[in-house]
Automatic annotation (TrEMBL):
Keywords: ATP-binding, Nucleotide-binding, Transport. This is Sugar ABC transporter ATP-binding protein. One of its GO terms (biological process) is carbohydrate transport. Transmembrane segments: none annotated. PROSITE patterns: ABC_TRANSPORTER_1 (PS00211), ABC_TRANSPORTER_2 (PS50893). GO terms for cellular component: ATP-binding cassette (ABC) transporter complex, substrate-binding subunit-containing.
Length: 373
């Protein structure tokens, strides 16, 4: 087992191609489950493929354990990779598919036998060993692909959207299985997905990328509660965070007030202090607040400090999402989404006065889009 370190990693395809991975620096610890997440084309697969040795590094270094592997061929890197289209060999049985990598490495037959059977048991596909891939369901095939990777006990697992061919229910199930597998094997895992829910539920840490650049690396709750910038705040979480532009004006007791054309909100003393210290008085900033910290005022008396201009709006529409209801409220030209309980029906057109929990207000610099902390 080993950690993986990326140092000033850059990649461009072709001689004069644009940089699709830009100065990526990351230390993945031994045994960690690191998820790369970000929108399509942000460079996740390219980064993973460089770790695997399937793409040349344009600039920078990759270490697996203490070894610089830039010039080590894929076969010698002791990694196992599971792809989106896991490409099982159609004419081989499940057993042969799983044994293939070990045979290539000239492992002794009885060891192959033991390893395949043991891992097949772990993945609950022991009863399928004689079948051909076409005789399996999507989830079973996926498990065979995982099995093929884990029989070798590599130093590092690399997975690139391994669940994207599965239906929603099976994805959720396989997610849990991969997390459990990781707990059991304690092998370093790098997992790529564009699905923020998958990233949040699976990773011990997640690395959010955009346009080839790392935006933030942290534990799921870190990046959710303390996003580094507006991109991360918006990309992580469902429904997306609410953003509203407003100006910071002097308020009572030396604090600040967030002022828009429609409403004014007193800001907590600590946050006011930070904003003042960084010169944001009279400046326009972006307020970010997650839907679970938006309430009907009447439901949370005393939560938000009193104001002469509260947030008054109309329910625009609501969506039922499992146990939650996302209620979209129009406040002038702004829109705020509130997370309520499923049973909390608010018909369209209902007039509501909203209260935002001051503790969870985030403020962003409008120009740089970075959080003000
Ligand atoms: N072989 C290639 N030749 C040229 N450009 C490429 C090649 N592979 C990828 N790219 C480009 O590099 C950028 C990053 O691609 P990459 O596949 O790493 O994105 P990704 O984050 O994995 O996206 P997705 O979520 O869609 O899989 C994209 O702009 C893509 O078009
Ligand atoms: Mg990809």
């Amino acid at each position: 087992m080993a950690g993986v370190s990326l140092r000033h990693l850059h990649k461009s395809y072709g001689k004069n191609g644009p940089l699709v991975v830009k100065d990526v620096n990351l230390d993945i610890e031994d045994g960690e489950f690191m998820v790369f997440v970000g929108p399509s084309g942000c460079g996740k697969s390219t980064t993973l493929r460089m770790v695997a040795g399937l793409e040349r590094v344009s600039q920078g270094e990759i270490y697996i354990g203490d070894e610089l592997v830039n010039n080590v061929p894929p076969k010698k890197r002791d990694i196992a990779m599971v792809f989106q289209n896991y490409a099982l060999y159609p004419n081989m049985s499940v057993f042969e598919n799983m044994a293939f990598g070990l045979r290539l490495r000239k492992t002794e037959k009885h060891l192959i036998d033991t390893s395949v059977k043991q891992n097949a048991r772990t993945l609950e596909i022991e009863h399928l060993l004689e079948r051909k891939p076409r005789q399996l369901s999507g989830g079973q095939r996926q498990r065979v692909a995982l099995g093929r990777a884990i029989v070798r006990h590599p130093k590092v697992f690399l997975m690139d959207e391994p669940l994207s061919n599965l239906d929603a229910r099976l994805r959720v199930q396989m997610r849990t299985e991969i997390v459990e597998l990781h707990r059991r094997l304690e092998t370093t895992m790098i997992y790529v997905t564009h699905d923020q829910t998958e990233a949040m539920t699976m990773g011990t840490r997640i690395c959010i990328m955009k346009d080839g650049v790392i935006q933030q690396v942290g534990a799921p709750e870190d990046v959710y509660m303390r996003p580094a910038n507006m991109f991360v705040a918006n990309f992580i979480g469902s429904p997306p965070i609410n953003f509203i532009e407003g100006r910071l004006l002097p308020g009572k007791d030396g604090g600040l007030v967030f002022d828009t054309a429609r409403f004014r909100l007193p800001i907590s003393p600590e946050k006011s202090k930070t904003l003042l210290a960084q010169g944001y008085l009279e400046k326009t900033v972006v307020l970010g607040i997650r839907a679970e910290y938006v309430h009907r005022e009447e439901d949370v008396p005393g939560l938000a400090p009193p104001t002469d201009a509260p947030i008054r709006g109309d329910v625009h529409f609501s969506e039922l999402v499992g146990a939650d209801r996302f209620i979209h409220v129009k406040v002038g030209d702004d829109k705020l989404v509130m997370r309520a309980a499923a049973y909390d029906r608010m018909p369209d057109g209902t007039k509501v006065t909203l209260a935002l929990n001051p503790k969870f207000m985030l403020f962003f610099n409008r120009d740089t889009q970075q959080v003000i902390a």
